[in-house]
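Slide 14.
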Amino acid sequence: MNTQNPPEPNSGKPIIVFDAECVLCSGNAQFVLKHDHARRFRLASMQGEVGAALYRRFGIDPADPDSMIVVDGDRALRDSDAVLTIYRGLGWPWRALDILRLVPRFIRDPLYRLIARNRYRIFGRHDACWVPSPDHADRVL
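Slide 15: predicted structure.
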């Protein structure tokens, strides 16, 4: 993984910061790499220097995160908004999940946080961080 300073906010492509030890989170990262044909997203694990720095920049403790984030310019989307933004960005048919935005955030976010808090218990934890294949090295920071 890249150990440079956090990317410039205006570098053009949103960055998904995720937990590479979480089975669900790393599975989602792999899903994004497979289905993001437009190569819209880049990824950074919270365990790496870039991901940890981005978490700290937006006031999240990388050692105890309460959400994954999607960093787009100078803002970070959190919780269910982050997840729905990812699927919208993947295009069809995944974009259809954006209909879930009709569910009010005060319902979506507590459900997201419940899953996030219990992600290791529900889905498991890798012994080591997931590492992408060399084909995707340019997309993982």
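Speaker note: Residues 15-134 form one domain.
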